[in-house]
Write a structure and sequence with these properties.
Elements lengths: L1 E3 L2 H4 L16 E4 L3 H10 L4 E4 L15 E4 L13 E4 L5 H8 L4 E2 L11 H7 L6 H4 L6 E7 L5 E5 L8 E2 L5 E2 L25 H5 L8 E8 L1 E2 L3 E9 L2 H13 L7 E5 L1 H7 L12 E9 L5 H12 L10 E2 L3 H24 L5 E2 L2 E2 L5 H12 L6 E6 L4 E6 L6 H17 L15 H23 L15
Parallel strand pairs: 2-4, 3-4
Antiparallel strand pairs: 1-2, 5-11, 6-12, 7-8, 7-11, 9-10, 13-15, 13-16, 14-15, 14-19, 17-20, 18-20, 19-20
Bound molecules: flavin-adenine dinucleotide.
């Protein structure tokens, strides 16, 4: 097993995409295989934090003490069998996508950051543009080889319900505690996923690196669609784009898998790289619909053109993909906005101040109006972009050094409204260390007590992923 013990070699593991500072670790352990990992866990007495690819946005892989265990050597990819594939947790999304490129199989979850590791995406229950139709990471995991922080190991398969204790390889059992908490009714990855009669697997996915280690992962694949019909629609006014969303949702002609929003300030930022964005455009919507059989492409295109006709869209200036390369370009266009924001934050040496909140459908238009009212006139630069189909937008605040306090209270104001609407303070990035305060406000102390009971059944000493989700572990 490799060990990194010097300050310089540990430093890269104390970073992620949140620009969080203040991490600290005694050393980094890099096991070569599952046996080395299990041995290390069994003898380790210090707090342990697990590390994936470090693209997370909540500092959840960054410890303040103890050791880091990096799974970076767990890179194996097995051949696809019956629509399933076993992969090591360090395999990145882009490696998986490359591996599947010349096959008939498709893995739908696509957080725009394809350098993320599959282990990290399970820990955060990552989602992305195509989750609007296909669902989130949790929906595509069939089994995991899993280790508790004390080194006990278990193969957890889909269908194993929490009503039956989980039997570990040493014969011991874990019973799901008696609690009343259940997760909110919108896209959500804040705290543990809890629903009556769920599978154990559902609990482990989205547990923010606090319940155990994914050693190997069995993903469910679907048949690859022959084509994706895709475009970027431009609007003169942001409101025109917002109003189109409920229409798309209720329409019986079009069935997008992606609906991604760009506000006027996102477009302003993107114009640096894309001068061909129409000058009149103040909002954009990236959409995709999967087309199972190539022969249906023209029919699907015809439905979209009928639907889009006579809407408030700059249709002549909008972009429609002509080939696979154009689709990649549109995905890159979407990915550029968080990347540019992260670059600006790094240059300004500013911690990322980005929201990840979502509400249920009935609050969508109210939420958009509220964001506009609260944010405009504050004098703090910002962008709004993201998964508008799921009522899940990322607001990124870009304050100068004199506006940091104001930005923080602005975030508080936004979060408290979302909480009042019974939405979530994290729909895809997790709570980690950066959003605990909002999570506590969202669920309240009684529910935190329930969630702590779950944590303690897996990690009696509170050793794993300290500082993630909970104040007390
Ligand atoms: C530009 C940009 C765009 C992004 N867009 C999206 C998006 O659209 N959707 C989205 O969901 N996210 C997005 N993200 C966030 C990020 O990519 C995800 O949170 C990702 O899932 C993190 O994976 P990682 O491997 O980098 O994990 P890390 O950051 O290394 O760790 C994240 C968590 O996973 C835990 N972990 C890692 N490996 C394991 C393991 N083997 N077992 C158990 N726990 C483990 C860690 O302890 C930590 O708690 C974006 C990030 C960036 C920088």
């Amino acid at each position: 097993m490799l060990r990194k013990t010097s300050k310089e070699t540990i430093a890269p593991y104390l970073r992620d995409a949140s620009s969080y500072s203040g991490g600290n670790a005694d050393e980094v352990l890099i096991p070569e295989n599952a046996e080395e990992l299990i041995t290390a866990l069994k003898i380790e007495s210090r707090p342990v934090t697990l590390s994936g690819a470090g693209t997370g946005l909540t500092a959840s892989r960054i410890p303040s003490m103890g050791i880091i265990i990096s799974l970076e050597k767990f890179k194996e990819i097995e051949p696809v069998k019956k629509g399933e594939i076993w992969v090591g947790p360090a395999v990145t999304l882009s490696e998986l996508q490359d591996h599947l490129k010349n096959t008939a199989w498709f893995y739908p979850p696509n957080p725009t950051e394809t350098n993320a590791s599959i282990g990290g995406t399970l820990a955060t229950n990552a989602s992305g543009s195509r989750s609007y139709k296909f669902g989130v990471t949790r929906d595509f995991v069939n089994a995991v080889d899993f280790a508790l922080v004390d080194g006990r190991r278990v193969l957890v398969k889909r269908g194993q319900k929490i009503s039956t204790p989980l039997r570990l390889d040493d014969g011991s059992e874990i019973s799901f505690p008696s609690i009343t908490y259940s997760s909110p009714n919108c896209k959500n990855t804040a705290g543990y996923y809890v629903q009556p009669d769920m599978d154990w697997l559902d609990l482990l996915i989205g547990s923010d690196g606090t319940l155990g280690v994914f050693i190997k992962i069995c993903l469910r694949l679907i048949s690859k669609p022959d084509e994706f019909l895709s475009g970027v629609l431009f609007f003169e006014k942001e409101k025109y784009c917002w109003d189109l969303i409920p229409e798309i949702r209720s329409d019986s002609l079009v069935f997008p898998c992606s609906l991604e929003y760009f506000d006027r300030f996102s477009l302003e930022m993107l114009r640096e790289k894309y001068p061909n964005i129409p000058s009149k455009a103040n909002a954009a919507l990236f959409f995709e619909e999967d087309v199972a059989e190539a022969g249906n492409y023209d029919f699907t295109l015809g439905k979209w053109l009928t639907f889009l006709d006579k809407k408030n869209i700059l249709l002549d200036e909008s972009w429609f993909a002509q080939n696979e390369k154009d689709i990649e370009t549109f995905h890159e266009f979407r990915h550029q906005i968080p990347s540019l924001v992260n670059e600006r934050n790094s240059r300004a040496k500013r911690e990322k101040i980005g929201t990840d909140m979502a509400v249920s459908d009935p609050h969508f238009l109210e939420m958009m109006g509220f964001y506009e009212n609260v944010l405009s006139g504050q004098g703090i630069p910002y962008v709004i972009f993201g998964h508008i189909g799921d009522n899940h937008l990322h607001i990124n605040l870009l304050p100068d050094s004199t506006q940091l306090k104001q930005a923080s209270s602005l975030y508080d104001q936004l979060a408290s409204k979302i909480i009042a609407w019974k939405g979530t303070v994290s729909a895809e990035h997790g709570i980690g260390k950066k959003k605990r305060k909002y999570f506590y406000d969202m669920v309240g102390q009684e529910n935190i007590n329930d969630l702590e009971k779950i944590k303690k059944t897996f990690d009696t000493q509170g050793k794993l992923g300290r500082g993630n989700i909970f104040n007390s572990f």
